[in-house]
Structure formats: C-alpha cells, structure tokens
Amino acid sequence: MIRNECENEASSAITVEQAEEFVQRLDREIQEILYRAFGQNLETLPLESILPGLKTKSFFEQLSKLRTVEQQKILLMRLGLFGGERMKLEQIEKELGISRQRARETVGMFLRRAQRIPLTRRKNSSMI
Fold this sequence. Notes:
The chain is mainly alpha-helical and 128 residues long. It has helices at 2-12, 16-24, 28-38, 47-50, 56-65, 69-79, 89-96, 100-127.
C-alpha cells in the first residue's frame, strides 16, 4: 500500500520537458498566458497550494482536454493562473462575457475529471 502511494507520487511529478510537451498541446493564446505568468518554470506551478491533491501532470492533461480556449481561460482565471489572483465568477463573467453558471460548470467539470484520475488508479491498484 505504501509502495503504491510512493509510486503515484513519483509518477505525478513532471520534468521540464514534459511540462513543455503538455503546454505545446494547448492553444497559442493559453501558452502565452502560462509563459507570461510562470516563465519557463511550468513544471513548478503552485497547484498544490491552489487545489490540494491536484498534481501538475493531471492538471496539464485535463487542461488540454477542455474543448475551447474559452474553457481553458475560465479555468486559469478561476484558479489564479491567468493574472496572479483568483478571479470570482462575477469577474470572469464580465471579462469573457459569459454567464457565471457557465464558468461554474466548466470549473466543476475540470475538477471532477482531474481529481478522478488518481482515485481510479488507486482503486485499480488495490484490486490487483
């Protein structure tokens, strides 16, 4: 059990090259936002302080699966990765011209997907 948890921790850390690869999958506009905010240190995004338990690898994988640039922006704004501070739903609504409900649904969908990955792995590994 302890061994599986250690392996999950090690597999969730990413290298500079992996971070670069994940970012290259994103739209150019989102790439620029991330580089402007974090420079070349994308593998060290402060995700654990924003959402405990969310690993960098899972974050990038799920961010790239969001269908539109707008959805990716919503997430970055809500988590404080867009300009440094977390934005309220009202601020996102004004900035992007969308409803608060749409922003809430986008963030909720992302969180459900991103947090499901480690749970699924742990569940399957205990069944072996």
